[in-house]
Amino acid sequence: MNFFKESLLQLLGRAPTRPKPDDFSPEVKKIHFYKKGEKVTLDEIRAEHAAHKSHKWRNRRWTTLLLVNLLFVVSYYFDIQLLEGALTASRFMGFHMADLNSALQVMLAFKHVVLNLLIGTTTVFILWLLLGGRTFCSWVCPYHLLAEWAEKIHLWLVEHKLVKNHEFHRGVRTAFYVIFALLALGTGYTVYETISPTGILSRAIIYGATLALGWVVFLLLFEIFVSQRAWCRYVCPIGMTYGVVGLFSPLRVVYNVESCKHEGECRKVCLVPHVLDPVIKGRAIDINVPIGADCTRCGLCIDICPTGSLRYEIKGLNKVL
Amino acid sequence: MSEEKQKQNAAAAPTAAPVINRRKQQERRQFLRSLMLAAGVVGISAMGYIPVARSWNPRLRPPGALVEDEFLASCIKCGQCVQVCPVEAITLADIMDGFGVGVPYVDARDQACDFSCDGLQCILACPTGALSHSLNYPHEVRMGFARLDRPDLCLAMHGKGFKGQIRGPEFDGLFRYTEIDRWKPQRVHEQTFDLELCDLCVRHCPIEIRITQCEAGKPPSGDVNQCPPRHAIELQAEDRGDGVMRMRPVVLDGCVGCGACEMVCPTEPAAIVIDIESTVERV
Fold first, then answer.
1. Higher pLDDT, B240 or A136
2. Which residues on A lie below 8 Å from B45 (Cβ)?
3. pLDDT by residue (tens digit) across B53-104?
4. Using an 8 Å Cβ cutoff, are A228 and A151 in contact?
5. CB atoms B95 and A212 under 8 Å
6. Exposure check for chain A: N or C terminus, fewer CB within 10 A?
7. Element containing residue A101 per DSSP (H, E)
8. What is the torsion angle, in degrees rounded to the nearest 10, for the CA atoms of residue B56, residue B59, residue B65 and residue B70?
9. Min Cα separation A100/chain B (Å)
10. A208: alpha, beta or left, given left = phi > 0 and alpha = psi -120 to 50?
11. Do A211 and B94 touch (CB under 8 A)?
């Protein structure tokens, strides 16, 4: 199936399709054939993972996320006018920026678009089109960082059989997207912004703590005790919007099948494991397979892979880099 | 297979439990769970309508704000207006405002808008036009309308003067006193007054201050367009025949509702307040 179509359908919530025999390239067929006979023991893999402990991309990402959010704070407190506003809308050295989903909510509710908002939306659209769309989620959104830590607690509790993970249908996020768009259009209020943890947290970081943080705490508790990464996986329309932008993004993660051991550690650390379906033994349709748009380009899979089977790629620039 | 076992199987077959399709069951559970999640999240977000519908917290909005419903629809909740205000008069509302969470307002009693920015910077900063860009001068603004709410408390109505610091040494409200510094707002409590008759509200009215400047031939920034065409507040003599010199603050059609009078009113509560629902057009 066409990569974009498959990528979009997965974003909307459909389970990944298993490739048909015709989909495989002859080169990858050969690799799959030889891998069938290959036996890899668990101890071998464990030893390989133990020897490979890297947090390179995670550390870079956390640093970026903290710096972007700190830049808002510093700009306000020292009035240096670098990055004014909050994540919903801002001005970077005078250039308008507007979060795509917040802007959409305002446009639908207000039914009138001023030029500044249009400029801000276009700038941000181009920015994240180049940078990978959902890259916003893992590299900028402050809720992502808190949810990442909450996820660690959740996984610890699951491992010790203290809680059970409840999965939802991923298609519910598409439903949320439509519902919130219709609510904005129908009621004339930016309903989603009321509960957006991204907006609430960004404002709290910049303008000081509010009672609204209680809602964020509730969401984190829900993710710790009930469902792993529930907000980002099943609800957030911001992630959905950026996901669609990322469909056409040149920056993405690419999987190379050759040295992969298929032990699946990458899928364990992934926020959206369905995008890593091609790493399952026998699923890759080519030697190099680009990962779909729902991927947040967080790099956790790249960090954990001891064989270097996953890496960042800028489409079209491979020869140059 | 032994004969005995075959017999057992044959006996067990008719009474075996019907086949449970675990996957189907799992899928149904997941679907119902997802439905509940959707209902929960949408329900909670819809609760934001309650404070708005009941107007629990009527808010004085910053200069240029569109009418309340349009303002809530158009505000992207970024706080850029908060960042540019020289007197930090603008605050963002909390979750108790429902759909209004993150939307800016002015608590005039705490810190009024004193128009110490000549260019209506909050309006210029607004990326969505929630603060209408059609205003160019402070005197065109209509945030609300001042009202002598408690004439019985008003010092001028009692013919009383005022001596000391406005609202005590603890109050940290800011105001731009042109004679001290044209641009740098000062703490209100740093000024001491000794007035024979209290006229603090008139004295601090930004519109009246500009009119005085214009009459002295010194319009703000040398721009005559900054001169307000109409007065906003004045003291009118009121004679009750008891020989006491009484003055009543009367709000005029030039009032923009900035709240400076409410902030500096020395009585507790303030004798003069901003009526959020009213502007000169609606009064």
1. A136
2. 180, 183, 191-192, 194-195
3. 888 888 999 999 999 999 999 999 999 999 999 999 999 999 999 999 999 9
4. yes
5. yes
6. C
7. helix A100-110
8. 0
9. 11
10. left
11. yes
Answer yes or no: are the C-beta atoms of A269 and A300 closer than 8 Å: yes
Chain B positions contacting chain A at CB under 8 Å are 30-31, 33-34, 37-38, 41-42, 44-46, 48-49, 52, 69-70, 72-80, 82-84, 92, 94-96, 98-99, 101-102, 125, 127-129, 133
Contact A85 B83 (CB under 8 A): yes
How far, in Å, CA of A22 to CA of A14, rounded?
22
A191 touches chain B (CB under 8 A): yes
Q: At what angle do helices A142-159 and A213-225 cross, to 10 degrees?
A: 30
Residue A83 bridge partners (DSSP): A92
Q: Give start and end residues of each alpha helix (H) in B176-228.
A: 200-203, 206-215
Alpha-carbon distance A118 to A137, whole Å? 22
Q: Which two tokens stand for residue A76?
A: 């306000």
Interface test with B, best of A76, A88, A196 (most B CBs within 10 A): A88
Locate A107 and state its tokens: 């446009």
Take residue A21 and report the two structure tokens written for it.
């025999």
Interface test with A, best of B128, B134, B183 (most A CBs within 10 A): B128
Confirm if B154 and B249 have CB atoms less than 8 A apart. Answer: yes
Convert the pLDDT of each residue in A35-84 to its tens digit: 887 777 888 888 888 888 899 999 999 999 999 999 999 999 998 889 99
Residue B178 to residue B12: CA distance in whole angstroms: 99
Report ipTM for this prediction.
0.90
Chain B hits for A198, CB-CB cut-off 8 Å, are: none
Residues of A within 8 A of B33 (CB-CB) are: 166-168
User: By the 8 A CB rule, do A83 and A97 touch?
Assistant: no
pTM over 0.95: no
Quote the Cα angle for A36-A40-A41, to 5°.
Answer: 145
pLDDT at B1 (0 to 100): 45
Nearest of B173, B156, B147 to residue B267 by alpha carbon? B156
Name the H helices within chain B: 3-15, 22-46, 49-53, 68-74, 80-84, 121-125, 200-203, 206-215, 260-264
- pLDDT higher at B239 or A123: A123
B75, closest residue in chain A (CA to CA): A106
Q: Which amino acid is at A195?
A: I
CB contact under 8 A, B41 and A169: no
Angle at A109 between CA A203 and CA A200, to 5 degrees: 15
pLDDT in tens, A80-125: 889 999 999 999 998 999 999 999 999 999 999 999 999 999 999 9
Distance CA A269, CA A300 (A): 6
